[in-house]
Design goal:
This protein is mainly beta. 3% of the residues lie in helices and 32% in strands. A hairpin with a 5-residue loop joins strand 3 and strand 4. It starts with 8 loop residues before the first strand and ends with a strand. The mean pLDDT is 86.
Length: 177
């Protein structure tokens, strides 16, 4: 497991061709950096029925083995950015589509959640679940159990393990999943 920092989600590949979207938060307080459960870059979100952004794992304040059951997308804006807070709709930018490869600190390599598996090998599929570190919970990446044994959505694939990447997990996404 890594440690939370100011920058938790760093591109490895060009993001020029990546589809980015900005939608309003269902709960605007999540962009306030003083909120104990504010969104951070590299956390995962999804779209609700009102076309607003919500965490992919809804209850990070009181986590149980909580996991995403729908397609999720990574947040691509740092915690506390003034432009996000200043907008009346509190819009948050996330990566919506295309190929990309990123290093992230928001993961738990040892977690086994809802049929998943610990992150141990390159090209292992990944899914989204509540992960906890630094006495705080986030919506982050964990290992997927593989097609057939795990029915949760695959959001990417490991390309570099944290043990050989300065404590960060490198993953890719962008093709049929």
């Amino acid at each position: 497991m890594s440690t939370l920092q100011k920058i938790n989600f760093t591109p490895v590949t060009s993001i020029l061709e990546v589809n980015r979207r900005s939608l309003p938060l269902a709960d605007g307080t999540l962009c306030n950096p003083n909120n104990a459960i504010a969104l951070v870059d590299g956390e995962w979100v999804t779209i609700n029925t009102s076309y607003q952004i919500i965490r992919a794992t809804p209850d990070v304040a009181a986590p149980v083995p909580d996991y995403a059951t729908v397609r999720s997308f990574p947040v691509f804006v740092e915690k506390g950015r003034y432009d996000t807070q200043a907008m009346s709709l509190h819009k948050v930018t996330f990566l919506f589509g295309g190929f990309y490869e990123f290093d992230t600190r928001i993961f738990d390599a040892a977690a086994v959640v809802h049929g998943g598996a610990a992150i141990t090998t390159p090209m292992q599929p990944l899914k989204v679940a509540t992960v906890t570190f630094s006495s705080r919970s986030f919506s982050g990446l964990v290992g997927h159990g593989g097609v057939g044994s795990d029915t949760d959505p695959i959001v990417g694939y490991v390309t570099r393990l944290p043990t050989s990447n300065g404590g960060q997990l490198r993953f890719m996404t962008g093709y049929a999943q």
